[in-house]
Each structure stands twice: as structure tokens, then as C-alpha cells.
Amino acid sequence: MSENASPAARPGRDERISARARGESWKKPPRRIETSECITCDTCLRSCPSEFGAIFDRGLDVVIIPELCSGCPVCVLECPVDCIYVDEDWTPTDDDMWNHIELTSGGAA
């Protein structure tokens, strides 16, 4: 995902990956994908703004990393099956996923 990020966008995203934390100024909660409703079309992944790069293909599921998601509605507007919701009660991303993100982010860690 980060390969598409512009150089100006990468520092903020890379910093959030290293810190494993959401942007301090973000007021909206992150989004989540309801896997039982998702058709794994990856439209959300392709539409997520590169400065966030919050959506990843995790094998059979597509997931939103809450620490990278600003809560913007871009993915929601693009989803053909309306399976993306506000996640008021999000939980921190597990270490295995962070390790995957750090490996694919091009040296963020």
C-alpha cells in the first residue's frame, strides 16, 4: 500500500506505523470492515488515500488498521456492498499484523 504514497505523505504514515498509534489530531473513530458482509473486492483498499494506507488484504479478509485510519469516508463511499462501519470500540492491532505492515511499508520500523 505504501508504495503508492507520495514522499510528502509517507513521513506521517511511517511515523504512525513506527508508533503503532493513531494521529493525535484525528477526531473521528476509525472504520472497520464487517467480514461476514464483505465480498473481498478490494475496492476499499484501492480507494484508501495513500497518506493513510489503512486497508490491507489479509488472506481471505480485507482489514482496516484502526491506528492508520483517520475515519474519513472514502472507503465507505466506494464499497459496493456497504460493509464498512464506524468502529467506536476498536481494539489495538495485533503484533503479527504490525510485523506484516512494517515488512511491506519499506522501512518504516
Describe the protein's topology.
Layout: H1 10-19, E1 31-33, H2 43-47, E2 55-58, E3 61-64, H3 74-78, E4 84-86, H4 95-104
Antiparallel strand pairs: 1-4, 2-3
Strand content: 5-15%
Q: What is the string of SSEs from the N terminus onward? A: HEHEEHEH
Helix content: 25-40%
The unreliable regions are 1-9
Kindly state the mean pLDDT as a whole number? Answer: 88
> What structural class do helix, strand and pairing data support?
alpha+beta
How does this structure look, described?
The protein is α+β, with helices and mostly antiparallel strands. Helices cover 28% and strands 13% of the residues. The strands form two sheets. Strands 1-4 form a two-stranded antiparallel ribbon. Strand 2 and strand 3 form a beta hairpin. The longest helix is centred in the N-terminal third of the chain and has 10 residues. It is globular and about 30 Å long. The two termini are 15 Å apart. The N terminus is likely disordered.
